[in-house]
Specification:
The radius of gyration is 19 Å and the shape is globular. It has 235 residues and is mainly alpha-helical. The protein has a two-stranded parallel ribbon. It is built from ten helices and two strands, in the order αααααβαααααβ. Helices cover 44% and strands 2% of the residues. It folds into two domains: 80 residues, Cytochrome c-like domain (Cytochrome Bc1 Complex, Chain D, domain 2); 121 residues, Cytochrome Bc1 Complex, Chain D, domain 2. Bound molecules: heme C (2 copies). The site of one heme C (HEC) has 22 residues, from helix 7, helix 8 and helix 9. One heme C (HEC) binds next to helix 7, helix 8 and helix 9.
């Protein structure tokens, strides 16, 4: 009897999951116009202040698309882009970008700043109430898709800086459904910490010692697993 109840619950869960899922093929067609700014592969932004969408969690993408469409998250450059799109269209777009492989850029900045960023990312700053980013965004920065915690790995640093400052200033309020956890997290980060975290995140997952030039700039020498790791900056 218990097993049967459990099976019923599971099938309901699966049914609702299937119902909510978007169709990547339909999303691909709708995304052609987005490529102008977010890249054909969803990970080649026109400007470094524009985010990568490829490999981002579907749930997170859908939530942001809804917030952008309703103008709760105001993005001047995206004015009109989502006009007339149905809820199903947004789900399809989210499914499409989530299905693309994410891309990681090179971590930049000096070794000291990156080490400081890594310490905050992995352990937080206890005395200032800053939680470990890795607890929600995962140690490798790929996020937590079922929870809707976004992937941070590979995001161009200027984009991440802008988001952390917007959360800190209370201007970005899309974390309302999560009890304002990102505004709380960013509240006491300094400008220097934000810059360092953003440069660190751009290159996460960080290669193991030996595979990058040390000291000085972090540099990737090999592609890491399924990720499309680009060889570092030109230098
Ligand atoms: C003219 C340039 C432009 C076009 C075209 C554009 N975007 Fe954007 N998009 C941006 C910018 C700029 C941001 C980030 C702004 C900010 O918050 O700092 C953004 C942010 C986003 C985000 C939030 C990502 C995150 O990590 O939170 C999503 C999702 C998104 N765009 C999807 C789309 C989709 C889907 C389309 C096509 C229907 C599209 N965009 C077309 C410029 C553009
Ligand atoms: C308790 C969980 C939690 C912790 C800890 C946390 N985050 Fe987040 N983070 C979130 C959630 C949830 C969102 C999405 C909020 C939304 O919907 O806009 C987010 C969003 C972000 C974004 C915006 C991503 C994008 O694509 O626009 C950045 C950047 C970010 N977090 C960085 C950090 C950093 C850096 C730390 C550590 C100092 C951190 N987060 C700690 C849960 C967390």
């Amino acid at each position: 009897m218990q097993v049967r109840n459990w099976l019923v619950a599971l099938s309901l869960l699966l049914a609702s999951a299937a119902q909510g899922a978007g169709d990547p093929a339909a999303g691909k067609i709708l995304s052609l116009i987005c490529a102008a700014c977010h890249g054909m592969d969803g990970a080649t932004s026109l400007l470094p202040t524009y985010p990568h969408l490829a490999g981002q969690s579907e749930k997170y993408l859908l939530q942001q698309l809804q917030s952008i469409q309703s103008n709760e998250r105001q993005i001047l450059e995206m004015t009109g882009q989502l006009f007339g799109k149905s809820p199903q269209d947004l789900e399809n777009i989210a499914a499409y970008y989530a299905s693309l492989p994410g891309k990681v850029l090179a971590a930049d900045g000096d070794a000291e700043a990156l080490a400081k960023a890594q310490a905050i990312y992995r352990g937080g700053v206890l005395e200032r109430g800053i939680p470990a980013c890795a607890a929600c965004h995962s140690p490798a920065g790929e996020g937590n898709a079922p929870a809707g915690f976004p992937r941070l790995s590979g995001q161009p640093a200027p984009y991440t800086v802008a988001q952390l400052k917007a959360f800190r200033a209370g201007q970005r309020t899309t974390d309302e459904g999560y009890g304002g956890m990102m505004r709380d997290t960013a509240r006491s980060l300094t400008d220097g910490e934000i810059d360092a975290l953003a440069l660190y995140l751009q290159g996460l997952p960080v290669p193991q010692p030996g595979s990058f030039a040390w000291p000085g700039r972090f540099q990737f020498s090999a592609s890491a697993g399924a990720e499309d790791v680009q060889a570092g900056a030109a230098d």
